[in-house]
Design brief:
Blueprint lengths: L1 H6 L2 E7 H4 L2 E8 L2 E8 L2 H17 L7 E7 L3 H10 L6 H15 L1 E3 L6 E3 L8 E3 L4 E3 L7 E2 L1 H17 L4 H7 L3 E3 L18 E3 L18 H12 L2 H16 L4
Parallel strand pairs: 1-4
Antiparallel strand pairs: 2-3, 5-6, 7-11, 8-9, 8-10
The chain binds zinc ion (2 copies).
The site of one zinc ion has 7 residues, from strand 7.
C-alpha cells in the first residue's frame, strides 16, 4: 500500500500510531518505590514508520511538483513524545516550556533554606538534608531569651570581635560562648568558624517560596532565610518545650 501511494505525485498518508504501534506499560518495584516504564510494542513497524515519516518531511521541501504528506495521529503521551523526538518534529511552545522546566529540575543548583547547601530538585530525597528545625535560646539569661539562629550567630560573631579588641574581657566572653542552645535538640550553637551547619533532623531540602523563579535558586535571599527561621520560631511543640523549661527554671528559685 505504501508503494502504491508513492506512485502518485501528490499523496497523503495518515498513520494511526496508537493502533499501528501500541504501547506496553510495565510496573517495576525497586527500593525507590514503584516505577512505571513504557515501551513500544511493534518495534520494527515503529522504525519503519519513523523513517517513512522523515522521508516525507524532506520531500515536501522539494521544488518539484511532488508533494508527499505524512500525518501521524497519536493519543498516547509517551508515544507522542518519543515519536516527536525521533522524527525531530518541531516542539510547540508548551512543549518547549515543559522541556526547559524538566532540564531545570535535572540540572539547576538550588540553595536549600534549611541547610544552605546546594541541591538538585530531581535528586532531592528524604534524608538528604540535615538541619535544626527549632529556634535558639540563651541558656544563661533568666528569661531564656529566644533568638533565631541568624541572630545568635550574629551575637557570637560580635563576641569574637570583642574578644580580640578588648583582651581584658576575654575570660568573661569565653565563659558565655556556649550559652545558645537549639530548642530542638539542646545542642550548643557553635561559633567556631568553619564548623558546618549540621543539625538534628534529616529530611528533604527546601527552596524558598518566591514568585520570581529565576531569583529563588542559586542565591539565598534574606526573605527566604527569614521565612524558614519564622517557621522554626513558631513551632508549637518547641514553644511548649520552651515554656516548660522556663517554668522549671523559675521554680528553682532563680528569679
Ligand atoms: Zn536541633
Ligand atoms: Zn537542605
Amino acid at each position: 500500500r505504501y508503494d502504491e501511494c508513492m506512485e502518485y505525485k501528490r499523496s497523503m498518508i495518515i498513520y494511526d500510531l496508537d493502533s499501528l504501534i501500541g504501547v506496553n506499560q510495565s510496573e517495576s518495584q525497586s527500593s525507590m518505590g514503584t516505577s512505571t516504564s513504557s515501551s513500544v510494542v511493534h518495534q520494527a513497524l515503529y522504525i519503519y514508520v519513523t523513517s517513512r515519516f522523515r522521508e516525507a518531511v524532506i520531500e515536501t521541501n522539494n521544488k518539484s511538483n511532488v508533494e508527499k504528506w505524512s500525518i501521524a495521529v497519536v493519543r498516547d503521551p509517551f508515544l507522542l513524545k518519543k515519536f516527536s523526538q525521533d522524527v525531530e518534529f518541531p516542539k510547540t511552545d508548551r512543549e518547549e516550556e515543559e522541556y526547559k522546566e524538566e532540564q531545570r529540575k535535572e540540572k539547576e543548583l538550588i540553595k536549600c533554606i534549611k541547610c544552605r547547601d546546594f541541591f538538585i530538585e530531581n535528586e532531592n530525597k528524604m534524608g538528604n538534608c540535615t538541619y535544626h528545625d527549632g529556634f535558639v535560646y540563651d541558656n544563661l539569661s533568666l528569661e531564656l531569651t529566644k533568638y533565631t539562629p541568624s541572630m545568635a550567630s550574629e551575637i557570637l560573631n560580635l563576641d569574637e570581635f570583642e574578644m580580640i579588641h578588648y583582651p581584658q574581657r576575654k575570660d568573661e566572653i569565653d565563659r558565655r560562648k556556649g550559652r545558645f542552645k537549639y530548642i530542638c535538640c539542646d545542642s550548643t550553637v557553635q561559633s567556631t568558624i568553619g564548623s558546618s551547619a549540621g543539625g538534628c533532623k534529616k529530611g528533604k531540602h527546601a527552596m524558598g517560596v518566591s514568585s520570581n523563579k529565576q531569583k529563588r535558586s542559586r542565591m539565598l535571599t534574606k526573605d527566604a532565610i527569614d521565612q524558614w527561621e519564622n517557621v522554626c520560631m513558631e513551632n508549637d511543640e518547641y514553644n511548649e518545650r520552651w515554656s516548660q523549661l522556663f517554668t522549671n527554671r523559675s521554680k528553682g528559685g532563680f528569679k
